[in-house]
Amino acid sequence: MRVLFVTLAASPHLHVQVPLAWALRAAGHSVRVASQPDLVDAITGAGLPATPVGPRLAQDESVEKLRRRQEKAAERLTEPPDAQELMRMAEHRPERLTPDFLDGLFTVMTSAIFQNFTDEETVDDLVALARRWRPDLVVWDTLMMGGAVAARACGAAHARLLYGLDLVGAMRERHTASLAARPRELREDPLAEWLEWTSARHGGAFDEELVTGQWTIDPTPASLRPPTELPWLSVRHIPYNGPSVVPSWLREPPARRRVCLTLGLSFREVMGGDQASVPALLEALGELDAEVVATLDAGQLAEVGRVPDNVRVVDFVPLDALLPSCSAIVHQGGYGTAQNALVHGVPQVIIPNDLWDIHPRAELIVRSGAGLRPAGPGPLAPAELRELVARVLDEPSFARSAARLRAEIRATPSPGELVPVLEELTARHRQVS
């Protein structure tokens, strides 16, 4: 069969899709990956055929664009909350999940995120590609709903492949339940309106499958997922960190316990400059009786006066190669980093902020016993971080809990084992013309 993957033009989103795409190709299926032109080199670097769709996403310019979209969308609300509230998809407190909150959330998310990532030109290109290539199955990123529109336009089966916790699915269930409880004239649904209009342009109609897929493929361990009633398939997370070379120093076992410090692709954007500075992090870890491997680029090192003697600074090292030698990891809470740590059974210290699903993921990992996070918001003192890392290194319960989650992941079907299931579901759901 032919399988079209649709992903947001962000390398971490692609990295989650690569192992399943490889598995399908190894089973003899034809695979293509569609994304904005920004990602073409990363796709082909993974050994997969790329098809650019739509305009460049231009992530470097997107922060200001997102802010303007938030402000414009907020103008539609009677009493708009502050900017943080407008994007709080991880909200779970019952007292906050009011009809007004849910309406405002989906008003802003539809305008600022969903429409932004699959604008008209991108959807049109996806539909044209799908009608020309005729995929049997479309596997789409949860933020790229245009993939579902394209699947419907050509009669393909389609499924979401999640990057992170299923906040969209969980919050959508709350919103549709809230809408159903109201009089019909008060059921304003911006997401449905946009997808109905978008699908109608290509001869289709709207239903909730355009939001959450005919089924969902989820690499997150089942014990760390938010509950939903959606049909889903578990798949084992296979780490892919992009093309890389294993450095010579990593080929030998460490002389003492090793701690990984990684701040993601952009420390200030992802982690938040008010959480902890790079010098403060290095100060805290420099007093540990451990070797610290810190992935820092030149810009991050510019604000560091002195690197402690126990810290090895590298611009990049593949986590899949580094983490098996580590006893702990300190990171910003991103999905790919957390999943890599879970796969290798490494206890985690997470310094989260409010971006997307980082807070709920941190809470789930803490509740599982496999990690810790700072006690409260605000700047993180070196002494607090040092204490957190010392605890996950010295208290055996953290390693035991991390090993339990690693065992759960290893018991989950691999991408190769999932292929026959996808073949069966595709035959059941695709429309044969």
TrEMBL record:
Residues 281-425 form the Erythromycin biosynthesis protein CIII-like C-terminal domain. Gene3D superfamilies: Glycogen Phosphorylase B (3.40.50.2000). It holds the Pfam family EryCIII-like_N. Keywords: Antibiotic biosynthesis, Glycosyltransferase, Transferase. InterPro entries: EryCIII-like_C, EryCIII-like_N, Glycosyl_450act, Glycosyltransferase_28, UDP_glucos_trans. Residues 22-264 form the Erythromycin biosynthesis protein CIII-like N-terminal domain. Belongs to the glycosyltransferase 28 family. This is Glycosyltransferase (Activator-dependent family). It comes from Streptomyces pseudovenezuelae.
